[in-house]
Amino acid sequence: MDIFNWIVSAQGEGFFSATMRLAVPLLLAAVGAIYAERSGAINVGIEGMMLSSALSAALVAADTGSPTLGLLAGVVTGIAVAALLAVFTVLLPADPVVVGIALNLLAVGGTTFVFRIFSNQVGTTTTTPGIDAEPIPLLESIPILGPLLFDQSYLVYIALIGVVITWVVLKFTSWGLLLRAAGEHPAAADSLGLSVNRTRFVALLVSGAFAGLGGAFLSLVASTQFVENMTAGRGYIAMAILILGHRSPWGVLLASLLFGLGDAFQLRAQLDNTGVPFQFLLMIPYVLTIVTLAVFGRRLIDPAALGTHFRRGHR
Amino acid sequence: MKSGLHRTLAVVGLVAAIGFTSACSTAVPSGNTDNATSAARTPVEDLSIAIVLSGPITDNDFNQVGYEAAEAAGEEVGAEVAYAENVSDANAERTLRNFASDGYDLIIAHSFSFGDATLRVAAEFPDAVFMAGTATSNAENVGTYDNPDYQGAYLAGMLAAGVASEGTVGWVSAIQTPNLLANLHAYEAGAEDINPEITVLHSFIGSFYDPPRAREAALAQIQSGAQVLSAQTVGTIDGAIDGGALAIGALTDQNFLGPDNVLTSVLWDLAPVFTDVATAVQDGSWTNENYSYGVAEGSITLADFHGLDSRVPADVMATVLEREAEIASGEFEVPYDVTTVD
Question: For the ABC transporter substrate-binding protein PnrA-like domain, which residue ranges apply (chain B) (predicted)?
Fold first, then answer.
């Protein structure tokens, strides 16, 4: 009964709600990347999109006093950065990995530059009106599920609804079919008169919108300020989550929860005198991801046309 | 096969990005260098100062303190000040050499990991004066300074233990560096000074700037009973606000980050050291010693409580102030301990 007592204790509830908070920015970014990769477009620019959105969300929220407007600004910024990536990699035949990494580096310098212009002077960090958790009465007291799902900010619901919508779009809509065709056999899709490149362009924009939500989560929910380079590699972890989740919405949900669980666990394990050096504890979420990938990743098949540039009439 | 190549490239990108974030994390073992004296130097008339920083000048932390102190010293002595920020260890030597060959008279390497680079460059430019945060040795034209903020951490530990009625306090930081370890151990010693039964929790988040994870580390400590947290990394104060705990800021007055939660901050003012060094370079009296400015020199102080001193029991506050005076007079020496912890 010890375990049950722990689950309903303040520590247990804190553990499960932290799991979700740590998972959500990765979940949002990875769900968006499903659209891009299933259509054959690689989005290596997630990190830059998240970072840019974290900044714009923080600035707009601080300026207007409205976190919702901040969130919208984050989404718009994510889409704008994604459009840049799409122009170079879908319309022009640039290498998506090179452009993606270039965008990430541009975002590090660009956000620092813009942040310093708007924060007026060195030393004034913009604190944002954050989006608080809103516990749902009754549901929040369900063990495990309560703290995991019903004691969170509304962005968590947006992320979960995003998972369901993505599943429906991919599985049951004609656009989802077109998306998958563009990723598997673009020439066949093209021969039916469907536009491969328009599909990929839109898929990248959708990916940008989700990465934007993930970035806004970092500066509005997970903390209430913008700090230079605050994404700390989460965009790259989201790419690993995408692969671990087999580019499926439910898989990505599980994979990001696994990472969040590992992270929430190690933060608590550090406080018990386990004798394990903290460096090893810090590795737990990453090792968990790699081991799971090694065990369950064998059957993973990339979309056949992933990362290729499509030009009508050329092979 | 093409996507296999992409995957590899993406991993390379990931490694590069991690390299970025942890660039300033390697630390040279601390230890004060010998107070060897150097020959008298020629006075410098038109002094120019350059400072090389390992992180952004907007961090409300280590790098901002260094940058602002260099600016203040420049203003005080009438010197031109240049700076380079976000300089990784690999780039430190090149950046220092650039400043030296541009003719800067006083070059400050503001990191605990630029020591070797400073020594190499200093050997090539004997006319310039170099000040390193830490170095394994000093040279004719290389002096060092340190950050004895562990003296302030002792006072912070006393305050935290005095306020925490349930007997648990916390400490959240980035990674283990000698400086932060000295801070942690002094914080623990200070807490035990007030309450020998105190439990001091500590967390490392693994990188210098990751506010979301620092916030989660703070919340985990609060859920384990911590009532007061020492915020050694950005984001801790967010967690204290969320969990309804108090926090003690570090290096700059961080009350604005949480007016109802930030009890006080341990301030580090480098301006006195930099100003004294700049003046000494100007008049030719500079020597290559280790400049350690702590509580006694007024470089380490407690910030304004912004009204939250009402949360501190009067007897605790009196003991803290008494201890602060004893540290300043040299009557009490804060233990300096950089043993690694799990």
Answer: 48-335
